[in-house]
Amino acid sequence: MYHAFRHAASGIKIAARSLLAVTMVGAVSLTIVTDSAQAAKNPSRHAAIVIDANTGKTLFAESADAKRFPASLTKMMTLYMVFEAMQAGRINKNTKIPFSKYAASRPPTKIGVAAGQTITVEDAIMALITRSANDAAAALGEYLGGSEPRFAQMMTAKARRLGMRSTTFRNASGLPNPNQQTTARDMAILGIALRQHYPQYYGYFGRSSFQFRGKTINGHNRLLGRIEGVDGIKTGYVNASGYNLVTSVNRDGRRIVAVVMGGNTGASRDATMTRLIQAHLEKATPSRRGNDALLMARNDAPAAPAVAATPSPLPRAVPIPAERADQQPVLVADASGSTGSAQDAISAVISRQPPIPAQQPEMLALASPTQRPAASTSSQLVAIPTPKASIPNVDPVTTASANTAAARMGLAPKPVAAVRNEPIAVPQENVRQPQPAQTTVAMAAANDVAGAWAIQIGSLPSENQAQEMLNKAAQQAGSTLRATSPMTETFNKGNNTFYRARFVGFETKTAAWDACDALKKKKFSCYAIAR
What we know:
It contains 14 helices and 16 strands. The protein is α+β, with helices and mostly antiparallel strands. Strands 2-1-9-8-7 form a five-stranded antiparallel beta sheet, with helices on both faces. Strands 12-14-15-13-16 form a five-stranded antiparallel beta sheet. A two-stranded antiparallel sheet has the order 3-4. The protein is globular, with a radius of gyration of 27 Å.
């Protein structure tokens, strides 16, 4: 009996151990599954990149091509679109931006403008840069695009043309939307493009505060004034994204743009950015004096002319063109996601100027919001560009145009979206008169030269200097420029007059860029432009 009892007890212990082992294995398995599910549910938000803004070289990258939520970094593209409209003369810093009920109801952060009220474009710009105001972003989007969703479509199309192949926008502010995504690399491209394409407006990003209706509104960028050379750009935060920051640094001729995404706190994000700047700025290539002519050639666009506070209304019929692919400076990089194609996209943004505004009569008019304040009175019909409905559902990775090499060969890119004209009612008093271009052709004969493309090799303070540069280039280029004609074109910047030095008469984009390649070997700065 005793032996039987011991045997039974031993069996119970063995069974208990087995049960305990199974239970522990099950618990471990459950823990692993739970942790994996949690990791899948909350993937890492961190990403970072540092780009040499003089060369386009990637100095540092960590998860730089992983999808992230941009948060208020979205407002960088909103501002890019605003600057584009200002340079084209469609709006100016004193243009009044109305707030609809929709715009006024956007959640914080905001500046609290009531529906039916207006603010100037300049105040809206400063509200986006300092307060990161969602209401002002929505109002700008409605004014420029007709509605915020439509403006977001335009933002996405512009992102594609800048080479931001992994970015999709859903609103003008960066408020949470699961389909609004980007990458650290794309945000770096945008940061570089803002400075390269619109240097006359870039100074806004260096402002840490502004006065609005008797109050001082302070900014969120704590690195301004703390780190030598930091001159912008933008902060961002929503719960899903963590703390984001794009920073531009210009010190001793070295220029970098750095991006940090997914910080746990604003302080930790700033500390990470500080370490990246300290570690990589010295690796950047200093700008050379030989690049000065190219920089002037890029930056010679005149500031938008001032418009009277109460401008005359536009004619009732306003033509709206589709965006033309041949006016876009950069095509989207190859969708393979390779570092090489990404490098091409960044280098292209650095080396080329922004889209050339269409000349009259193809002058883009402004569309006003579809939801207008109750005080609105008379209306007119204005057509606004409306991309196809497929744009909001576009795959930001697989949808791409040709790579940079194909662009230079003159190959047509895959269309981003067809644009059609759709008339909507717009309050007449809110439409601004497009301003005529301020440039004049100094050599009239050049206007009669055939060819859709030209090249520009510099902008000089006197016509004699411009002609001397053209003569020197013609002598050194040999047969490359034999079928073209030199010309100078004047433009005003502030109180100064400058002269563009150009060769016109290229039949194709390829021919123009081939000529630039030949001139660059002779130490000339050069870029091709559509006439």
